[in-house]
Amino acid sequence: MSRGESMAASAFMSMAYLNQSNSFIDEHHWLSLIRGALEEDEAEHEGTKVKVKVSIFFVPKNMVSTKPEAYMPQLFAFGPYHHWAPHLYDMERYKISATRKIQSSLHPLKLPELINCFMKNEHRIRSYYHKHLDFEGETLAWMMAIDASFLLDFLRNFTPEAEGLWKRSSSQQTWDASRMKMAYNMVTRDVMMLENQIPLFLLRKIMQRCQKDCSNVDDKELSEMLMGFVKEVIPIKSASNVTLTDVKQYAHLLHLLYSVIVPREIEDGFGNMQESECRIDMKDSEEDPTHPGVIKSFFDSAWSYASNVNGGATIRTIKRFVIIGPIKLIVNAPWKIITGLPGISMLKRPIESLISRGFAKKDETSTDESKSGSKPPLLEEITIPSVEELTGAGVRFLPSMGGLTTMRFEVLGKQATMYLPNVTLDVNTEVVLRNLVAYESLAESRSMVFTRYTELMNGIIDTEEDVKLLRKYGIIRNHMKSDKEVADLWNGMSRSVMLSKVPFIDKVLEDVNRYYNSQCKVKAKKFIKKYVFGSWQILTFLAALLLLLLTCVQAFCNVYSCGQRWFNLTD
Prior knowledge:
Elements: H1 3-21, H2 27-38, H3 61-64, H4 86-89, H5 92-105, H6 111-120, H7 122-127, H8 137-155, H9 180-191, H10 201-210, H11 215-233, H12 253-261, H13 264-268, H14 290-307, H15 313-332, H16 335-339, H17 348-371, H18 387-392, E1 395-400, E2 408-412, E3 415-421, E4 423-425, H19 429-442, H20 449-460, H21 464-472, E5 476-478, H22 483-491, H23 503-518, H24 520-531, H25 537-560, H26 562-566
Parallel strand pairs: 1-3, 4-5
Antiparallel strand pairs: 2-3
Keywords: Membrane, Transmembrane, Transmembrane helix
InterPro entries: DUF247_pln
Transmembrane segments: 531-556
């Protein structure tokens, strides 16, 4: 929707609201609204046509329900969505104090002039918001002037010249020093919420009104404030030092933060980048395909008979006393040592083939699905082993020198390495992550890169042990109370509102899963889980056969008196 269409729609919705509250239509008011919506004021366009895109949304209820406090402001309301919330209205006095401070600390700013400027931009302000705003133009202008002044005063704390400014009182009342950090964190979280955003061009208007002859300086100072704040709250460091050259291209603070984490080049073309396949040398697992089929068929055909011996009672006894111990020994013992034992070496190739064949069909199916890039994923949660499982399979983790674009999986010889970007977690990170996912989902981004990244982290982190390993490898910097809190953060992340598929991240997942599933140790565990702890087919048959053999020996000895003949035993 273009700006003119958006403003016209806003005008019509305003008239509809007036029609519901008043029995009669004020034709002059209607004409004023339509004329203001359709007329182009070149002065307000700053020499170019301003294209306003809706970028401030209400978060869907299915996302809010998982953790409402991460999406709804807890201390300060910015903008119209939560302005009348009773639990936030008490903080209006601090915003009014900040407005006074802005007027006094900067060059003289006449508030009526600022209100008139905002009223001229009423339709532009409304165009940023997805929901219709039931506010009169003057009310909206006053609200935005106060909120933008408070936000500007808060952002001034992140410029080099403003060190310690937050510790000073914003009004006649002094904030208690012991509660400053908590208040700072609460304001930071409120500022980063999607429903609590206000257009950044309002901050430019304030600074331009304060210093009319220094518009370039104003943009430079505002850029320093914004980037100082972004560096403070950004969870994932970008590939390079990002400088903010044009404030006008960013709708609000959350949009700016998202653009730093997910640069435009990623959305435009990085997702279509072709990468070479990850080749894995598994010469030891090559075998003759004829033998394992015969062995497996023999065991499978004997299973039905063995399961019916004594109604299954004998099998259950064997399971309990005979099988579990040897199986644990086999699983824990190194495979090369086992295959080197006398009599076992000749069975090495058939056993490996039997294990491999059980998963060949499943691996082929998963490979076919992964190659179909046009199909969306069947599950929203990533199907990938945890950090602990990958580490056990020989995968090491290293921090990548950059942002999301540097994420990759490499296999050099026998060493597999997964590179992940550094992520810093503190008390504000969960709110930032959740609202970035919500913004990316609702802003109709062409590539759900950030959402896919959060799904990947959700997939590889299951327990606090996974967090501990990533912290050990230098990927996670934990400023929270414990590793368990970090694990709960990732596991509690709301899933995306739409299925996401990002080629360069999916390529990493495909390579990781292919390598993990190709390891003999992993295949052995899956085989034992499927054929031993699930059905007990092979080992139950062998144990039953051994019991039958011992029974035959006992019967033979009873008939021919083995004890008296060979061991000189008497009754």
